[in-house]
Amino acid sequence: AQRVTQPEKLLSVFKGAPVELKCNYSYSGSPELFWYVQYSRQRLQLLLRHISRESIKGFTADLNKGETSFHLKKPFAQEEDSAMYYCALVTGGGNKLTFGTGTQLKVEL
Amino acid sequence: DTEVTQTPKHLVMGMTNKKSLKCEQHMGHRAMYWYKQKAKKPPELMFVYSYEKLSINESVPSRFSPECPNSSLLNLHLHALQPEDSALYLCASSQDSGGFYEQYFGPGTRLTVT
Fold first, then answer.
1. Most buried residue, A4, A15, B15, B27, by CB count within 10 Å?
2. Are the beta carbons of A18 and A74 closer than 8 angstroms?
3. How far apart, in Å, are the Cα atoms of A85 and each of B66, B71, B90, B105?
4. What is the distance, to the nearest Å, from the Cα of residue A58 to the centroid of all Cα atoms in its chain?
5. β-pair partners for B5
6. Contact residues, chain B to chain A, C-beta under 8 Å
7. Strand partners, B57
8. Is it the case that residue A47 has pLDDT exceeding 70?
9. What confidence score (pLDDT) does residue A28 get?
10. If DSSP states are collapsed to H, E and C, what string results for B29-96?
């Protein structure tokens, strides 16, 4: 079955500490993965996608096919990083996105 | 204009009412989506329109009826809803259909069924 797992509902870190938001997937084909983010009182928006291999707002994510993971990382957390983060997998033969359950990141001062 | 707009922001309706949600985008996107999001849960896909034709219906009950009058507009007609249908309804659009394209989300309509 095609599935996205985010094991942490809530992750609290201190400002300046490293951040790692975990995402594991289950998919029989070649996966296409994304991270979407929702800041407080704002709409859901794309943060980054694995095929572009770019860094957005200091965040990076590497696809590890051996471990079926796509963890989101940032070396130094900032207060403005506090948000809900969703990992998403392209499924349905490429026709749709399936979202993980989300991780609420809270960056404390 | 690089936004997806949704109206109304909030809607309260009784189980016998008929109402509609509206979504609009002027980015020239050819795919539009309806998602349902319950509190503290991820968005769940309901419908996908591609080039104004319904391409995916995720086994949504018939009390939800989507409509795509033109490439910029997407409606969701509601009739005889149940209290458990109360949720945030999100509209999204993308350049073309398929999960590979970045989806641009609207702010949502918060629906309460009494």
1. A4
2. yes
3. 28, 30, 17, 15
4. 13
5. B24
6. 4, 40-45, 48, 55-56, 90, 92, 97-100, 102-108
7. B47
8. yes
9. 83
10. CCEEEEEEECCCCCCEEEEEEECCEEEEECCCCCCEEEEEEECCEEEEEEECCCHHHCEEEEEEEECC
pLDDT at B1 over 70: no
Task: Give the model confidence (pLDDT) of B7-23 as tens digits.
Answer: 999 999 999 899 999 99
> Cis ω on the peptide bond leading into residue B8 (within 30° of 0)?
yes
Torsion angle of C-alpha atoms A104, B56, B33, B11, degrees rounded to 10 = -90
Query: What pLDDT score was predicted for residue A94?
Result: 72
> Strand A103-108 relative to strand A83-91: parallel, antiparallel, unpaired?
antiparallel
The residue type found at A71 is H
Contacts of residue B45 in chain A, CB cutoff 8 Å? 96-98
How many C-beta atoms surround the C-beta of residue B59 within 10 A? Answer: 5
Among the partner residues A32, A43, A45, nearest to B99 by beta-carbon distance: A32
